[in-house]
């Protein structure tokens, strides 16, 4: 690590002279010779892609969610870091999207579509050397996450907190259970203890230590933090959780107020339908809701699109030789063996973290995508019939394709533009703004 820039002298620049020596180092040479690179095994060439199902009626309404974040590091003493996060939800209708030219969308047409159809949320999380008076960074972050989820500004109106409670307490069902036990944020080192909150509460008092705990503590952000700093993953995890809650807010409002229309909606998430590590506590109730809605006669149509990562890379190997208008629904053994490259005997892929199955879809040579579609109860080896509303989702895709990027969907492209922090406001502006507050 080079020395950081001070107020008088510039920072130290990392030397590149050391590169030559590293490449000659015997251990580095030996390791380099043994590493495998991603390749396409013979078995993958013989895998059978299935033809896409015959088209059914397309879905009428589209909800799409996306988020972005920008970490701002102040490079002068006291070297503070904060992360700006923005998420956005768009409501679109398929009929209007069909009128958009997929090659060169007219800005006025897009403007009309987006008018009054966008809701967004923004917040800021401290990561280093930034805190509220009288509190540690640990507690400042916990408080900030709770108050950000509560967001009562006109845009959000407390709806995200309602959705978190709706999922965590399974409020669509007759259940009146409290939260499953979780580790109390006040239980440091030898005072570790479990705690819980009763049905429908936003916050409460821990029955073991008597301190105030929040419903957001249930998600476990504090397990990733230290007393005096937090890793940047806290911000990216907050963003993913908020995106998920925002999409489920649209779903919940339709479920509660327009149930007759809910099965005409397509809910789209930019990214996989999964929640990682300790945060995956939301996954099981989400799966149960999908199953419940299906058996009640109101199937929910949702999909996630992965635009990077292991599955995306694998599709780049496989896709060019696959037949047009075909799909491949990925099975547990295939994922472990060819995509994760791990022993096939281990835990089933995504058992605790995923609420959708992964599939590759090839429309033509330019439109190949990695999609996730929910399956309700977890399926290790899902079949097409297990994927909820699969045929109608697939039938809607050709109506919302964008020709501006390979494998692109217009709703996700629009949501990217709205949620993006790197272009508007610019990161320089964010930096100036956060400095002027100090
Ligand atoms: Zn406690």
Automatic annotation (TrEMBL):
This is NurA domain-containing protein. It comes from Methanospirillum hungatei.
């Amino acid at each position: 690590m080079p020395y950081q820039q001070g107020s008088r002298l510039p920072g130290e620049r990392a030397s590149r002279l050391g590169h030559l020596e590293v490449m000659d180092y015997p251990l580095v040479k030996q390791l380099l010779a043994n590493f495998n690179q991603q390749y396409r095994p013979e078995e993958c060439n013989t895998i059978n892609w299935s033809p896409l199902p015959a088209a059914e009626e397309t879905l009428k309404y589209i909800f799409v969610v996306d988020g972005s974040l920008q970490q701002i590091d102040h490079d002068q003493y006291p070297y503070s870091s904060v992360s700006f996060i923005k998420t956005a939800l768009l409501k679109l209708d398929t009929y209007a999207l069909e009128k958009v030219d997929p090659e060169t969308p007219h800005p006025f047409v897009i403007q009309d579509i987006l008018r009054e159809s966008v809701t967004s949320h923004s917040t800021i999380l401290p990561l280093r050397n930034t805190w509220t008076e009288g509190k540690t960074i640990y507690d400042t972050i916990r408080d900030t996450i709770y108050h950000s989820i509560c967001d009562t500004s006109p845009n959000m109106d407390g709806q995200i907190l309602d959705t978190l409670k709706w999922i965590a307490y399974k409020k669509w069902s007759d259940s009146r259970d409290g939260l499953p036990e979780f580790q109390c944020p006040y239980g440091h080192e030898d005072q570790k203890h479990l705690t819980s909150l009763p049905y429908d509460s936003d916050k409460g008092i821990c029955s073991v230590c008597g301190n105030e705990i929040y419903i957001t503590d249930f998600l476990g952000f504090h397990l990733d933090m230290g007393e005096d700093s937090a890793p940047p993953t806290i911000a990216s995890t907050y963003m993913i959780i908020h995106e998920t809650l925002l999409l489920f807010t649209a779903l919940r409002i339709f479920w509660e107020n327009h149930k007759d229309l809910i099965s005409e909606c397509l809910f789209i998430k930019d990214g996989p339908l999964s929640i990682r590590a300790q945060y995956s506590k939301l996954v099981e109730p989400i799966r149960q809701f999908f199953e419940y809605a299906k058996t009640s006669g109101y199937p929910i149509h949702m999909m996630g699109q992965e635009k990077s990562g292991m599955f995306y890379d694998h599709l780049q190997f496989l896709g060019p030789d696959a037949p047009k208008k075909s799909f491949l629904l990925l099975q547990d053994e295939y994922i472990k063996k060819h995509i994760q490259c791990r022993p096939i005997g281990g835990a089933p892929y995504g058992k605790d973290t995923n609420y959708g199955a992964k599939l590759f879809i090839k429309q033509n040579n330019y439109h190949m995508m990695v999609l996730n579609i929910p399956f309700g109860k977890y399926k290790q080896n899902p079949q097409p019939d297990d994927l909820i509303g699969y045929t109608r989702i697939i039938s809607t895709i050709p109506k919302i394709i964008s020709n501006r990027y390979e494998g692109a969907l217009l709703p996700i492209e629009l949501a990217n533009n709205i949620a993006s922090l790197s272009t508007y406001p610019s990161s320089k502006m964010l930096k100036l703004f956060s400095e002027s507050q100090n």
